[in-house]
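PROTOCOL LOG
Step 1. Enter all chains and additional molecules of the complex.
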Amino acid sequence: MKEVFFAMEIYLLAFVISLVMAFFISGMLWFTRFISREKVIIKEIKEERKEASI
Amino acid sequence: MSLTYLFQGFGTLFSQEPRIAISRVVLIFLGIFLVYLGKKGTLEPLIMIPMGFGMASVNAGVLFLSATKTGTLFIDPLVTDTNGLMSILQIDFLQPIYTFAFSNSLIACLVFMGIGAISDVGNLLRFPFTSMLIALFAELGTIATFPIATALGLNYGEAAAISIVGTADGPMVLFSSLMLAPKLFVPITVIAYLYLSLTYGGYPFLIRLMIPKEIRGIAVKVSKRSDITSGQKIAFDIIGCVILCLLFSVAAPLFLSFFLGNAIKESGMTKYTQMIEDGFLYGATFFLGLMLGVLCEASTIMNPKVLILLLLGMLALLLSGIGGIIGGYVVYLINGKKFNPTIGIAGVSCIPSTAKIAQHEVVAINKRAVIIQFAMGASICGVITSAIITGIYVSMIPLL
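Step 2. Run joint prediction.
Step 3. Record the structure below.
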């Protein structure tokens, strides 16, 4: 019985770590997409200002 | 001069214990049979042909080392003291590879680096939750075999090592058995590689048994917002590697090898990628097969636990396959029956075999259904969850 609980404990630990990794991956992707979107917006604003100053 | 001393391979057969002599003959024929199965394509030829040759030759080439002692000029895996090892290194031709590359898991790490270099983590990054969930279910064999193995009389280290066969990951089994059950690592690793070769033949039947035709043909829609850049993949590789190394330092060589291989591929260093794929992966796989064969000497492999290991290895892989398909069904239900549960088998991390099996079985029913990207995501996730569970076993077993 002790071994069954030990195996379940290992599975639970692996489950939590894997879930955290999945959240981390989603978060990382969201962050990189956010950054690249912001970069595009900043670039557009700069171009607009440049055009306006001309 | 006696003919026994002239033809020592034959001569030693008559001077050894009958049990050992019979085992040698059986292993010679088994080696020849493995070469045949490898050539025919029933088993993986990359491993089986060198392994079969090694197994047949080491059991044939036994000679008299002294009046009372027999041995070979291939390898001595049991030598422990430094002086003895230095002598053996100068005599046995495969001993340097065994001592400097095999017993310290270097070969396992090189194979893992190669796996990293041929893997695309983009599929995992596109569907992280689906892939992780399937991969976790596909670890059923790795978890459920452990209590069964201890109930059958194996100690914790041996039970964990044979349970890891359920990950269907050869280098992982080699690494963990060297760490947890060094006395049984030869039979465990040989069993693992034999069974891994058989998954290609066995899992399609499991899929057909567990998934009805109408569900097996479901085509899964892919959302369009799924471009993953190489920068994102490398960021995942380095951060994932550091986090996993922080959590499970004992398995750090494996994590480093896998993620480094992948990062090199993604960074576009073609010369390095070619070196890892063509040099490291194939070179290490060749020596892995040869070493496993050579280690199957009758006197080394004769162990009453081998029969139990044969049963448990098969059970672990079977349970992992069943678990993977159950995981596929869970995602199928969560996604409103729009997901193909056949992808579940790919969670068993035998890259890329299980993903190919899943795609093959789906195409047999629906020629337009392409599920390979989901299957590869689950497979790569399987490698990561396998490494996590191996890390937990290797860290926790010595503390028990």
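Step 4. Note key features.
Chain B has two domains: 1-73, 106-399.
Residues 106-399 of chain B form one domain.
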